[in-house]
Amino acid sequence: MSTQFFLDETDIETLINLLLRSQQSRTREALCLSIGIDPKRLSFIRESSDSDFFLLLISYLDGIRDKEALCKLCCKELLPVFHQGKYATILSEIAVKLNCNQNPSVEQPTSPTPSPVPVFGINPSLQPDGSKSKSKRPYWLTGGAIFLIGLAGLAGFQIYKTESVNPQYKGLERLLSEKNWEEADHETANIMWNLAGKWQERSLRKEDYKKLSCDDLRDIDHLWTKYSNQHFGFSIQRRIFQSSDVNSDLGKFMSHVGWGRVDENKEKGQIVFVFYQVTNFSLSAPEGELPWVVNWQGSDDRQAYVSRIIDYGI
After folding, report:
1. How confident is the model at residue 289 (pLDDT cuts 50, 70, 90)?
2. How confident is the model at residue 137 (pLDDT cuts 50, 70, 90)?
3. CA dist list (Å): 228 to 57, 187, 248, 299
4. Domain boundaries, the chain
5. Over the stretch 206-251, which tens digit does the pLDDT of each residue have?
6. Cα 44 to Cα 52: distance, rounded to the nearest angstrom
7. DSSP class per residue in the chain
């Protein structure tokens, strides 16, 4: 007898990617409680990377047919964050597939409360019955593989990437994965100039920053934060700008991230800009220093840059 799943592989991949973008400051326990799941039931809640955890959680909920928890994950946790653009459309389609607007009382009953999930992250009742099982379903992890163990003792695994990177960001991802921070900064500027239709000018003004979509900024930021271990990225710059130390002061922000320094000898402590060429392109550089070149080269409005990264709402 085959097991029916609510979500296909593309749905799961989408949910994982959006959770990685939106849950950076959220504990796993808090997420579970928000969608009505007791985190103590999940044996994989600790010993896994973020991407692995989200995969295991979604696969677990889909496997036990907990439609209510999946709906909360989609509509309560993700739609309020990604309420515009392409992701909003995709999430709405997943919500329709889950029939989230229906009263839970008329939905198909879910399975009884399962025992804690074993170390492999798959409920035993969902494991394939032998190597020929039709219910076998591929799962994927960033840091490894989920082993689908048959009751007869046959084990196998398949590895899939959890992230589908926009082709226009492939070059940026390669540079970031190689820790080539300087070239990645220039590539980020090239992407942003192109998105704003300012490739020839290679300069962005206040009105140009408004042309950069939230989805594109989130995607770029995700790559920066991922490969720098939360040291560089738009969201890191936004957090610093809104911190109590900086208090949304542009001069203090520029001093904090290494873009400039306050010259106490000048009137009102004016900011002296740091030359980009002397930047320390490594993780020992100030937190939030990069991306930088897009607002250093040919930009007359750094306040517009900061305002845009605050508005894009990651």
Report:
1. very high
2. very low
3. 25, 16, 24, 25
4. 9-128, 167-311
5. 888 888 888 889 999 999 999 999 999 999 999 999 999 999 888 8
6. 9
7. -PPP-S--HHHHHHHHHHHHHH-TTS-HHHHHHHTT--GGG-TTSSSS-HHHHHHHHHHHHHHTT-HHHHHIIIIIIITTTS-SHHHHHHHHHHHHHHTTTS-GGGSPPPPPPPPPP-TTSS-GGGS-SSTT-TT------SSS-EEEE-TTS-EEEE---S----GGGHHHHHHHHTT-HHHHHHHHHHHHHHHTT-TTTT---HHHHTTS-HHHHHHHHHHHHHHTTSSSSHHHHHHHHTSTTTTT-HHHHHHHHTSEEE-TTSTT-PEEEPPGGG---STTSPTT--S-HHHHSS-S-HHHHHHHHHHT--
pLDDT in tens, 8-25: 888 888 898 888 887 655
Q: Which of the listed CATH numbers 2.140.10.30, 1.10.10.1770, 3.40.630.30, 3.30.1360.20 matches domain 167-311?
A: 1.10.10.1770
